[in-house]
Amino acid sequence: MSVFILLNCKTYDEGTGANAVKLAEACRDVAESAGVEIAIAPQIPDIFRVASVTDVPVYSQHIDGAGPGSHTGKVYVKSIQEAGAVGSLINHSERRLTLAEIESAAEALKKNGMKSVICTNNIATTAAAAAIGPEYVAIEPPELIGSGIPVSKADPGVVTGSVEAVKKINPNVKVLCGAGISKGEDLKAALELGSVGVLLASGIVKAEDPKAALYDLVSLI
């Protein structure tokens, strides 16, 4: 099974500007060494900076379904694609969207050959997201995000339930496990519960040594 890790820089100083490039370089080195795929989601202004100097897959933290035209402030899919992104997060718990907005964003990405990672907070929303047909759904109970308590331990049922729900609706959609992920045992547990990888942020981005933290993350697989 191919393991996928997506590192979300959020708006942490440790993942901003030149620091985003350093994180991407750490992702590249660990991915090559461990034989896994590690992608990074920097802030939108940093997409080009990161994509132009590394070959790490770069995702946007948000995308809107708006097309070309009078949409001031919207994130246009072709803009992030031209900057070097290969896909985008949609509906992160810190950037919630309506179902119509989620569908519109996912469709815009699909039309441009880009990947979608739809974030969900429970089994029901995971099932709804799977029906849209993204490449990934990432199950993240919001109360566990940034808590240091991995969802794979605190609420394993939401992961296994999400995996089963996705299989019934669209078996081509892959499930990622998020919230509180930071250590090798967390990734190992997430994989054992049926996910193909993890979406994580502060446990790596804010670590004293992000590369060492990434090596620890992949140490048990």
UniProtKB/TrEMBL annotation:
SUPFAM superfamilies membership: Triosephosphate isomerase (TIM)
Active site: H92 (electrophile), E140 (proton acceptor)
Record field: catalytic activity: D-glyceraldehyde 3-phosphate = dihydroxyacetone phosphate
CDD domains, per database record: TIM
GO BP term, pick one: gluconeogenesis
Enzyme class label: isomerase
Protein name: Triosephosphate isomerase
Organism: Methanimicrococcus blatticola
Source lineage: Archaea, Methanobacteriati, Methanobacteriota, Stenosarchaea group, Methanomicrobia
